[in-house]
Design goal:
CATH architecture of the largest domain: 3-Layer(aba) Sandwich
Strand content: 15-25%
CATH topology of the largest domain: Rossmann fold
CATH superfamily of the largest domain: NAD(P)-binding Rossmann-like Domain
Radius of gyration: 19 Å
């Protein structure tokens, strides 16, 4: 046992982690040759009305285990739906050296993985839009074809907010325009949206207008059915879906999965637990062979569609153990 195990609460964990450093660590692992297909699969066990998740992994000198509980009834009681801890181990002795607050780690890791998947495409597509002269000189730069990147986020919870934060931190060069959050109810504190607009999901006309002009759409909800009609999206839209790791729940419709290039963390993992992928494949809208592994995006093995303005790009993630291990290690002092 370690002579000293550092324990960080939520605030301490957040102070040690950053979106940019997380992206650098994730990309570094993939560039060094780590294959996510070799990762230890997440295990889930029922605990009454809740669920326990165990996520161990070792990637080079990054060794960690995350233990989480998922309690669907908690939000109604004002409590987090997901709670847990992440243990960081010494890669040589396997002694525990650091304990992180698990939901904070998840809150950094998830948008960081999304940024790994989309940042090149966003830069290429915005640049292509400008180069094609689609923006009117002197215009306000908003909307499809403008010089700015309008963002639509489904959800107002921690992941929804974190994705916008990560976008601004990791991609400061992107000219971000309007940020619109779509949800059934407005957040209790409008300041939580950090200047973003709110549109009620029931306001179909406003949602359609926002989607029609969006360059990036983020889906960060607990929805089990598609959140919107993908026919509303422009051909150069980039879509991120992070809300589910269950094979029978999805945020995106099959029509989008058929129309888009689809990037996943790992093909086998996606076919096992990413409902957006699993159901689209089952419905004949998506061929497994067409899925693009995230590692191919990072290493440059797949670049053809990054700036393609004729097909949407979907990045579907469900969270993998290796990501927590790699990002968790960045919290080690010194």
């Amino acid at each position: 046992m370690s002579a000293h195990i550092e324990v960080l609460d939520a605030a301490g964990t957040r102070s040690r982690l950053g979106y940019r450093s997380a992206v650098e660590a994730l990309e570094g692992a993939l560039l060094a040759g780590f294959d996510p297909a070799t990762d230890v699969p997440r295990t889930a066990s029922p605990l009454g009305s809740a669920e326990a998740l165990l996520m161990p992994s070792a990637v080079g000198d990054a060794v960690g285990v995350k233990v989480l509980t998922v309690a669907p009834g908690n939000p109604a009681r004002g409590l987090p739906r997901i709670q847990g801890l992440h243990l960081v181990f010494d890669a040589d002795t396997m002694a525990p050296v650091l304990i992180l607050e698990g939901s904070v780690l998840t809150g950094i890791r998830t948008p960081a993985v999304s940024m790994v998947g989309v940042r090149r495409a966003l830069a290429a597509r915005v640049a292509a839009r400008i180069a094609a002269g689609e923006a009117a000189p002197g215009g306000d730069g908003g909307g499809a074809g403008g010089t700015s990147l309008d963002v639509v986020v489904f959800g107002t919870g921690p992941q929804a907010i974190a994705h916008v934060e990560a976008l601004r931190e990791v991609c400061p060069e992107l000219p971000i325009g309007r940020v619109t959050h779509v949800a059934r109810r407005a957040p209790g504190d409008p300041a939580a949206l950090h200047g973003g607009e709110f549109v009620a999901a029931a306001d179909a006309a406003s949602v359609a207008l926002a989607l029609g002009g969006a360059g990036l759409v983020v889906c960060a909800t607990t929805a089990r059915e598609p959140l919107f009609d993908s026919a509303l999206l422009g051909d150069d839209a980039v879509v991120v879906a992070v809300g589910s790791h269950e094979p029978d729940a999805r945020e995106l419709d099959a029509a989008l999965m058929m129309r888009a290039e689809v990037v996943v963390e790992d093909v086998v993992t996606a076919l096992r637990e990413a409902g957006d992928v699993v159901m689209a494949v089952h419905e004949g809208a998506l061929a497994p062979a067409a899925l693009v592994p995230l590692a191919d995006v990072v290493t440059g093995r797949w670049v053809a569609a990054q700036g393609d303005a004729t097909r949407p790009l979907v990045v579907k993630t469900s969270g993998m153990s290796w990501e927590d291990a790699v990002v968790g290690r960045t919290a080690l002092a010194g």
